[in-house]
Amino acid sequence: MLVGLCSDTHDNLALARGAVETFAEAGVGAVVHCGDVVAPFTASVFDADFDFHAVRGNNDGEWALAETVEEFGTYHGESAHLLLDGVDVAVYHGTSERLVDALVDSGTYDYVVRGHTHQRTHEVRGGTVHINPGGLPFPGADEAYHVAILDTDTGDVTFFGLTA
Questions:
Q1: For 24-36, how does the pLDDT look when each residue is reduced to its tens digit (9 = 90+)?
Q2: In whole angstroms, how far apart are CA 43 and each of 52, 96, 146?
Q3: How confident is the model at residue 140, as a pLDDT?
Q4: Taking Cα atoms as reference points, which of 164, 156, 160, 137 lies closest to residue 148?
Q5: In angstroms, what is the C-alpha Rg of the chain?
């Protein structure tokens, strides 16, 4: 199964739409958003032909965000434990590095997917794969917004740079 991974869209509609187009073209079966969607109008962009899962980010203060996501997907709140095509996936925005490290080092999950830092990460620790698809580049950064696609059959992770 192909799983789209994204985070930290921060109400950038062009990049959110680009992420959805990338995932649709690849034929993903599910998309996981690791938080900081920010507003319901951005979340609605992910109402597409795949299962959608989202967790809360530190900038997701809009009260109607959960309600909007629940109209077409699943809003898990602070974190999620997903079973996708037989693999265990922990999803957390990533505001606590200690918690991220604990999830990765626990050995409980095949994948720990997080956001928050806006930095792409793909590392293996003790049999657990830690992935951060990236986020909007910080002002002055010379980098594109990135999303990732995880192939649960092969374990391959592919990053895609998007520009508005």
A1: 999 999 999 999 9
A2: 10, 24, 17
A3: 67
A4: 160
A5: 14
